[in-house]
Design brief:
Layout: H1 2-13, H2 18-62, H3 69-83, E1 94-101, E2 105-115, E3 126-137, E4 141-149, E5 157-158, E6 161-162, H4 163-181, E7 188-195, E8 199-200, E9 211-212, H5 214-217, E10 229-230, E11 241-243, E12 249-251, E13 259-260, E14 269-270, E15 280-281, E16 299-314, E17 328-331, E18 338-350, E19 359-360, E20 383-384, E21 397-400, H6 403-412, H7 421-431, E22 447-455, H8 474-492, E23 496-502, H9 511-516, E24 523-526, H10 530-543, E25 546-548
Helix pairs in contact: 2-3, 4-6, 4-10, 7-8
Amino acid sequence: MKFMLQTVKEFFRDSRGNIAMMFGLAMVPICIAAGAGVDYTRSEVVRQQMADALDTATLAVGSTTGLNQSSAQALAQKYFTANYNGDMTNGVPVITITNFTATGSVTATATYTLPTTLLKVIGRNSVAISTSSTVVWGQSKLWVSLVLDNSGSMAQGDSTGSKMDALQNASHQLLTILQDAATNAGDVKVSIVPFDRYVNVGKSNVNASWIDWTEWAAEPANTGLNGTTDTLGPGETCPFATINGWGQIQQMSPYGYNCVNSATNGASSTSTIPSSGLICPGTDSGDYNTYRRSVYYNGCYTSAATGSKKTVSSGNSATCNGHSASNCSCSGNGNAKKCKAINYKHTWVPNAHSTWGGCITDRDKTNEYDISNTAPNSTAKNFPAVNTSNCLDSTVTPLSYSWSTLSNQIDAMAPNASTNQAIGMAHGWQTLSNSDPYNPGALPTNTTRYIIILSDGLNTQDHWWGNGHSEGTTEDGYIDDRMDKTCSAAKADGIVVYSIFLHIGSSGNSAPLQNCASDSTKYFNLTTTSAVVTTFNQIAQQITNVRVSR
C-alpha cells in the first residue's frame, strides 16, 4: 500500500510528456471549433446564394400586376427555384410571402436546413438558415414624356437593323412596362414628342388660340410686289427666277425660290406666270434666307388688271420687249409706233389656315419663351406655325394612358429632315406642364415627372440657325446653348431627365445630351441598335421604382 501511494505522488510530480498530454486533451475543443468554422462558412455561402435568388424572386413579384397572396408566393417560389444554385441536400429552400400588398410592397422569406459536416461529432446534424427580402414599388403615379429623334439619319443602322426600328421596338416594350406598373388606370401617363427640325402638333389644332400665324402668312422679303402696279401678269416671265443655258429654272438673288403654278403647297415649278395671274413663290432653298430653308410661302400675289396700260417701247423699232402677246400689243407706224403692256396691281393673299400641315417651329429667341416654358398669353408669343416640304409624319401625343393610341404613334414615326433637340426638349417639358398647348391638368400628388430624350446626332438646324447638314458649327452651338438652358430649367422645375445618345460607327459623346441628364447615371452612350432595347428596359425599371429595399 505504501508503495502504491508513493507511485501516485510521483505521477503527479512528474512533468515528463506533459505537453503531449495537454495537446491531446486540447484536440477535442479544437476539432469542435474547426468543425464549427467550416460549417459556419458553408452556411454563410448558402445564405448569400439564397439571398441573391430571393431578391430576383421578390422583384418578379413586384413587377407583376394582378397577384394575390397565393399567386405571389407561387411566382416567388418559381423564380427562386430557377435562380438558386446552392445546397439542395434537403431539397429546395422554402419561400414564404408576408406583408403582401398588391399596391406597394412584398416581403419574402427563404428558409433551409443545411446538413453539417464536422459538427456531427458533437451531435449537431444541421444548421437552420433564413434570409428575407422586401421589394417596394413606391411610385404610385408617373408622368413620362418620350422625346424621340425623327431626323433623317435615324434611317441608318447596323447589321441588326435601323436606328428607327430599334427605337420603335424599345418604345413599345417601354410602354408595356409602364402600363403594367399602373395600379389604377391613369396612375401612369405618357406623352410622345417626335422631333426633327420642328414638331408636329397636328392639323386638328388649326383653330387653337396658341398658334401664331404671323410668319406662316407673311409674304417673301425683297419682292417689292405687294401693293404695286406694274406689267407683270399672265404669260410674263417669273420675276424670281431665270432660265439658264440648259433650259433649267435658276433661282436669282436675293430670292432663293422660283414661281409655282398655284397656291397649293408642293405645286410644280413654272418659268412664267400662269393664266390665273397668280405669282406664287415656291419652297425656299435657304440659299439666301437660311432660316427659311425648305419652308413654303403660304400664299400668292394676285394680278388684277387696272384698265390702264404702260408704254414699254416706242419708235420705228418698237417691240413688246419680251412681254407676252396676251399682255402687250403695238399700234401705229414709224416714229409713232408704240407698244403698250397692261398694268396689273399685285396683292399678297395668304393661303387658308386649313392648308397647314401641323408643324410649328421654335418661339421667340429674344424672350426665350421656350427655354422658360412660358405659357402663351397676351404678352408671350404663341407657337409659330410653319409649312414645310418635309413636315414630320408623327404628331405630338399629349399625356395619355390610351396605350393603343400611344403605340400607334410610335408606329407612325419615320426618319425625316434635320435635328433640333432643343425644340424636342421644350415640348417634352410642355406636355408635363399644365398650360397651353397641351394642358394635362394639375399634377396629382405623389407623381414624379420624367423626360426620356433619345437622339442619334448633334443639333444641325432650328428656326434661325444651321443648314441641316454640317455638325459642330458656330450656329449649331447656338442651338446647343438653347437646349442647355431648356434642360437646366426643366430640371429646376423638378423633372428627372434621362438622355440617350445613339451613334453607330463613331466614337465620342454628345455634350448637350450629357449635360441634359439629371446626373451621370442617367446618361447613356450607345453604339449599337440592340442596346436601345436594353437601355429603355433599364430606365423603365428605374422609373417604375421596383426595388429591393431590404
